[in-house]
Design a protein that fits this description.
Layout lengths: L1 E2 L2 E6 L1 H6 L1 H16 L3 H13 L8 E6 L5 E9 L5 H11 L3 H8 L2 E9 L8 H10 L6 E7 L5 H8 L3 E7 L8 E7 L24
Helix pairs in contact: 2-3, 4-5
Length: 210
């Protein structure tokens, strides 16, 4: 998939490992420099965190690269499993309101870990292309991610337009006071019966858990 001088390609876990410095550089420029008091330290911490993901089964990665193979955008995801920190925290929070809702959205879920595009390349639909390629033909029933809370941000507008709905609103992960939204998207079509026991065609969007 191409967008002018940018091509969107799938990466193997070994490619992610080999290009980790480039991945973190994109993450820092697109996110940490704008949202962290100490982005250099946050980038080091994130690199350590990312390395732990490379050996997990089912890792999917999609990169946006220029003709000289410079990385300008990246997204990757992992199947959610009990025992993983993000998965367990979100499952517990959603289940506090409805165990059936938590099971519906998170029992068979692809969890999107990161999606970032360099600021100079934003506004060119590269993020949308990365997201669509990441989710193309995946076997999971749903996808989920966490995003900074402001609903009018560029990222939130993208996710809303791609069918993501809020599962948690104004949610604070352990160790941070920053409010996040946790968003989910149906991938293989709605289940026959919704968590509320309704026919899926009659069910509305889930009410955010606060």
């Amino acid at each position: 998939m191409t967008d002018g001088d940018v091509t969107v390609v799938r990466w193997s876990p070994s490619s992610m490992r080999a290009r980790l410095d480039d991945v973190i550089a994109v993450y820092k420029a697109a996110f940490l420099d704008h949202h962290e008091a100490d982005p250099i330290r946050a980038a080091r911490d994130r690199a350590l965190h990312a390395r732990r993901h490379f050996d997990r089964r089912g890792l999917l990665a999609v990169a946006a690269v220029t003709p000289d193979d410079s990385l300008v955008g990246i997204t990757y995801a992992l199947p959610g499993q009990p025992g993983q920190w993000w998965h367990d925290v979100v499952v517990d929070a959603v289940a506090a309101a409805s165990a059936a809702t938590a099971a519906h959205w998170l029992d068979d879920c692809l969890e999107i870990v990161e999606l970032h595009v360099l600021p100079a390349y934003q506004g060119r639909t590269i993020g949308r292309q990365l997201l669509r390629e990441l989710l193309r033909d995946v076997p999971q029933r749903t996808a989920a991610l966490s995003a900074l809370e402001p609903a009018g941000s560029r990222a939130r507008r993208l996710y809303t337009s791609e069918g993501f709905v809020p599962l948690l609103s104004d949610f604070q992960f352990p160790g941070t006071l920053t409010p996040y939204a946790v968003l989910g998207k149906e991938l293989r079509g709605p289940s026959t019966i919704s968590p509320a026991g309704e026919l899926a065609g009659d069910a509305g969007q889930p009410e955010p858990v606060r």
